[in-house]
Specification:
Elements lengths: L1 E4 L3 H7 L20 E8 L8 E7 L6 E6 L10 H14 L8 H19 L7 H10 L10
Parallel strand pairs: 1-4
Antiparallel strand pairs: 2-3, 3-4
C-alpha cells in the first residue's frame, strides 16, 4: 500500500536513510495504531542520477506493508505530475513534444489519458483532454495510467 506524503525529493537524496519521514498514525487497511518500521526500498525518479531510499512500515496486525511516496508523483511513475501535465499541454495545445523527455513516454501518457478519458467520460471529452486530466486527478485516479 502506498501513502503519499509531503516530502522534498532533493532533501531525501541528500539525507538518504536519515530523512525524517512522517510516521502514519494508523494502518490504512485495518486501522491499527501499531506500525513497525520495515526498512527502506530504493526508488528512482526522473532528474536524479541515483535512487533514493523510501521509508516503509509494516502493520503487525494485518501484515500490510505501507510504502511512503512523495505527493508530487503518481504511483509507479518516475516523472512528476507537473512534468506529465506540462508534456500533455505541449502536445495537445502546441502540437509538439516536451524537450528533454522521451517521446515514447510522452506518447504513452497521452494514450493513457485518451483511454481513461473515454472510459470515465466517454468520447465526447476527446477535445477537452487537459480538463479530463484535471478532473481524473481530482477523482483520485491516475489520468495517464495504462490500467483503467
Amino acid at each position: 500500500m502506498i501513502i503519499f506524503v509531503c516530502a522534498e525529493l532533493k532533501e531525501i537524496l541528500k539525507k538518504q536513510r536519515d530523512y525524517p519521514w512522517p510516521r502514519p498514525d494508523l494502518c490504512a487497511r485495518c486501522r491499527s495504531s501499531k506500525l513497525w518500521g520495515h526498512g527502506f526500498v530504493l526508488a528512482y525518479f526522473d532528474g536524479l542520477s541515483d535512487g533514493v531510499y523510501i521509508r516503509r512500515y509494516r502493520c503487525p496486525g494485518c501484515g500490510c506493508v505501507i510504502r511512503l511516496r512523495p505527493r508530487e508523483y503518481f504511483r509507479r511513475i518516475q516523472a512528476s505530475i507537473l512534468t506529465i501535465r506540462t508534456s500533455l499541454f505541449e502536445r495537445i495545445v502546441k502540437g509538439r513534444y516536451l524537450a528533454g523527455v522521451s517521446r515514447s513516454r510522452q506518447r504513452h501518457w497521452l494514450n493513457g489519458l485518451v483511454r481513461n478519458t473515454a472510459a470515465y467520460f466517454g468520447n465526447t471529452w476527446n477535445n477537452r483532454l487537459l480538463k479530463a486530466f484535471d478532473r481524473l486527478l481530482g477523482m483520485g485516479r491516475v489520468p495517464v495510467s495504462s490500467c483503467v
